[in-house]
Design a protein that fits this description.
This protein is of the alpha/beta class. The chain has two domains: 6-183, Rossmann fold (3-Layer(aba) Sandwich), CATH 3.40.50.720; 192-276, Orthogonal Bundle (N-(1-d-carboxylethyl)-l-norvaline Dehydrogenase, domain 2), CATH 1.10.1040.10. The chain has eleven helices and eight strands. An eight-stranded mixed beta sheet has the order 3-2-1-4-5-6-7-8, sandwiched between helices. The radius of gyration is 19 Å and the shape is globular. The relative contact order is 0.10. The model has no long low-confidence stretch (mean pLDDT 95). The structure holds 1,4-dihydronicotinamide adenine dinucleotide (NAI). 1,4-dihydronicotinamide adenine dinucleotide is lined by residues 10-16, 33-36, 39, 90-93, 97, 101, 118-120, 141-142, 144, 236-237, 240, 275.
């Protein structure tokens, strides 16, 4: 496999912007694409703020920070990805939307390019089946936030080749990550275990067993988790948690994976967590006029 010089990152939300940032900080040219121009402008602001923070704390030199920003290019034009050696898709967690994108990517990108998905739970084998290069399709699951979390979970689809796996592992390691490998079953390793716990925390709240604060405090102080499960759900995005639970439920066929009605209701209400300012907790600033 030739050296990876240009990466395309699709979706400039929480995950795509973080993945683009670490790739740019490792000297790789990045095309960061989103269909929503506002998402692209939010991503540019958050990447440059994050790089400024790293520089001000002495984790990155000023020159390296400037260089990282030079490696980053934002676009809404999918055609620009024809130059990419490696593509990482991080758009909305919907199988249909991802499949449509993989179909387009297969037509646009060069035949040697690897198409990776950052999906949390959707079958890589099924995404690969919408392309003519299933041996070059793979799961590359970064954790949130990508610049900080050390893990990348690599998921091999039924047809993923050993060469594709080796190139993806080498890229993850070049980005300073530690790799674990999962077979292609719903939720892979991390979300297969994490999401039922978060769902159970919603059931614990829904059935009135305890307050949200005590559920989170219980898991933080009782099991040494850095964040409580409800706090973590707000951080991940309640819509993302619900999509993953639906995939686990459909893919593993057991009622124990049925999403909690309270989680469904929060998503219906648009209370998606930190990214919307409100989820289980309210992150909106109280206006000065409302204070006594
Ligand atoms: P997000 O909602 O923050 O961002 C998704 C972005 O994709 C949005 O900016 C949206 O405009 C864009 N988008 C939607 N359709 C598109 C298309 N057809 N072409 C280009 N851009 C499109 O979502 P987030 O949280 O970044 O998740 C993205 C992916 O990463 C999902 O598959 C999710 O399951 C996965 N993931 C999420 C984690 C989390 O903690 N939020 C952790 C690990 C993986």
């Amino acid at each position: 496999m030739a050296e990876i010089k240009i990466i395309g990152v699709l979706g400039s939300g929480q995950m795509g912007s973080g993945i683009a940032q670490i790739a740019a900080m490792h000297g790789i040219d990045v095309y960061l694409l989103d269909t929503d121009p506002q998402a692209l402008s939010r991503a540019t602001d958050s990447i440059s703020a994050s790089i400024r923070r790293l520089v001000s704390r002495g984790h990155l030199s000023q020159a390296a920070g400037t260089d990282a920003m030079r490696h980053l290019r934002c676009t809404s034009n999918l055609e620009e990805l024809h130059q990419a050696d490696f593509v990482i898709e991080a758009i909305v967690e919907s199988e249909d939307v991802k499949k449509t994108l993989f179909l387009q990517l297969d037509k646009i990108t060069k035949s040697s390019a690897i198409l990776a998905s950052n999906t949390s739970s959707i079958s890589i084998t099924r995404l690969a089946s919408s392309t003519r290069r299933p041996h070059q399709v793979i799961g590359m699951h970064f954790m949130n936030p990508p610049p900080i979390m050390k893990l990348v979970e690599i998921v091999k689809g039924a047809d993923t080749s050993d060469e594709t796996f080796a190139a993806t592992k080498a890229l993850a390691e070049r980005l300073g990550k530690t790799v674990i490998t999962s077979q292609d079953y719903s939720g892979f390793i991390v979300n297969r275990i994490l999401m039922p716990m978060i769902n159970e925390a919603f059931f614990t709240l829904y059935t009135g067993v305890a307050t949200k604060e005590d559920i989170d405090k219980g898991m933080k102080l009782g099991t040494n988790h850095p964040m409580g499960p409800l706090e973590l759900a707000d951080f991940i995005g309640l819509d993302v948690c619900l999509s993953i639970m639906k995939v686990l439920h459909a893919g593993l066929g057991d009622n124990k994976y049925a999403p909690c009605p309270l989680l469904v209701q929060y998503v219906d209400a648009g209370r998606l967590g930190r990214k919307r300012g409100i989820g289980i907790y309210d992150y909106r600033k109280v206006p000065k006029s409302a204070k006594l």
